[in-house]
Design goal:
The protein has about 170 residues and is α+β, with helices and mostly antiparallel strands. It contains five helices and seven strands, in the order H-H-E-E-E-H-E-H-E-E-E-H. The strands form two sheets. Strands 1, 2, 5, 6 and 7 form a five-stranded antiparallel sheet that branches. Strands 3-4 form a two-stranded parallel sheet. Helix 3 links the parallel strand 3 and strand 4.
């Protein structure tokens, strides 16, 4: 894993600071952005239903460390794992979460993914909480709440309301 990619700013921060977009969602809010929390999600171990560990209430990274590991190509996600002293030896790296889930379903390997990244229609995989629990907080971010347009403010309110009702 190339650590230089992890320290670079995510596109959301760049786009916001350069006025490409007016609002964004981020997991690593920078000091120059104004944010408010949107949602918190857990990282989950993703296993095929046929896996011997599929009925465990939670799993530690040590229990899956030597398995074929399918890693999501996501610098924010990798940073969260590293911050929590999880250093997976990625056998395969894939961008699309649905592809990762399909590969796990077929028994190619296991993964750790944010729970909201796993499609809801995953009948042949098990999502098991990681122990110790690791969460990631997602934030709505803008350059300055005082100067956003009424439409941007309305969008932020709708996002917050949607999350609260879900």
């Amino acid at each position: 894993m190339d650590s230089s990619n992890i320290t670079s700013l995510p596109p959301t921060h760049h786009w916001l600071s350069h006025s490409v977009v007016d609002i964004g969602i981020t997991v690593f809010p920078e000091k120059e952005l104004q944010t408010f929390p949107l949602i918190q999600e857990h990282l989950m171990v993703i296993l095929p239903q046929s896996d011997p560990l599929h009925d465990q209430p939670h799993l530690s990274f040590d229990q899956i460390e030597e398995r074929c590991f399918i890693m999501q190509k996501d610098t924010c996600y990798k940073s969260i794992l590293l911050e929590n002293s999880i250093h997976p030896k990625a056998t395969i790296e894939v961008r699309d979460p649905s592809t990762i889930v399909s590969m796990v379903q077929e028994g190619i390997g296991v993964s750790i993914m944010p729970e909201l990244s796993v499609p809801l229609t995953t009948a042949k995989v098990r999502m098991i909480p990681l122990n110790p629990s690791i969460t990631r907080q997602m934030f709505i971010a803008v350059r300055n709440w005082q100067t956003i347009s009424p439409l941007t403010a309305e969008f932020a309110l709708h996002c917050q309301k949607y999350v609260e009702e879900s």
